[in-house]
Fold this protein.
Amino acid sequence: MKLDIMPEEFVKALGVIKEIELHGFEAYFVGGSVRDALLGKKSHDVDIATSAYPEEIKRIFKRTVDVGIDHGTVLVLYEDSQYEITTFRTESTYQDFRRPDKVTFVRSLEEDLKRRDFTINALALDKEGTVIDLFHGLDDLKNGVIRAVGNPKERFHEDALRMMRGLRFASQLDFTIETETLKAIYTFHELLSKISVERISVEFSKLLLGNNRQKGFSPFIETECYRNCPGLAEHLKGLLRFSELPNFPIEEERQAWALLIKELSVPNKEIRLFLKKWKLSNQMMHETAELVYCLNKRLEGAWLPEDLYRAGLDRALAVEKLLSFYNLKGKLKETEEQFLALPIKERKHLAITGNDLMTIIDRKPGKWLGLLIDYLEKSVINNEIPNDKEMLISCSKKIIEQQDFQG
């Protein structure tokens, strides 16, 4: 098979391929970028595999960086772009089920391709646009099938993360996992416990955001991979509930985690602990916890001013988009109008500050100050007090006189 039109990202890199060939070596575009090109998807990066050894690549190109030279990868800075160029290689046994004990550089493209994970990722493309397909990857691409290269048990025993990658590809590409490949995932699912949480988390997040989430999530449950993922072993019922949500694509990672946590019924006070097990960033944990809180409030009824204020416009709109998963229609325009109509959008918009209050009331800072500002803020949001400094001062004095805010 030959591509009718070479994608722009490949055309831009042709100079690298030609330069390597001019020095007597083979070079091909390989992997996911080739797969995406055949599917009509744009790739951000292109990977190049070559028969040239790393030291030979470094002699060919003037500007290089040793990004993974032990595994045969050299970063080549070419014109205004950079390309990872990896030597054809074979790999030995995998004692840790993730990294090969030994990498051997070879001159054979076939030897390199047969060590790859799935047939759709074991495709190569030459500079003329001709596809090299040694493992029927084109057929699997056409038929929408995820199939391991060679013996799936060997592939997953070598690198257990490939199981999560297969599930993720099924979700992203809307493909079906081939029977023997699926059986091998079930056989070796416990090996995921040997893989770092960070790596599993990346693949799982991508799975949740796939175009056909159920294509990856259902086999994730069926193969019992969930048992070896942080905090999921005891949540089969919740996972099944999540899998039964409408199969609309989820736009953002924080939304995906929020939906999952809601269906798992993780208590509010345990959400951050649950997400911490997945090694998510503090920002992602905070955003997710807030979305869960706001989603639960929104499912109870229309936005209350103080809940909308707490959410902020960005989060509120993200919540509205999640309502379709509960057979409700999100009200994006109305929500934005309601938010814009709030008297204040943030605490800093309050017409009085803590320093103002300490000066006026002549008291040292303490618990009373936080309680008073909270009260004023909530009263303004609910239109019980206008956001006017004099009015807020008058109200504050009355409250202090009533001794409601001691401390």
In short: The mean pLDDT is 94. The domain at 250-342 is CATH 1.20.58.560 (Methane Monooxygenase Hydroxylase; Chain G, domain 1).
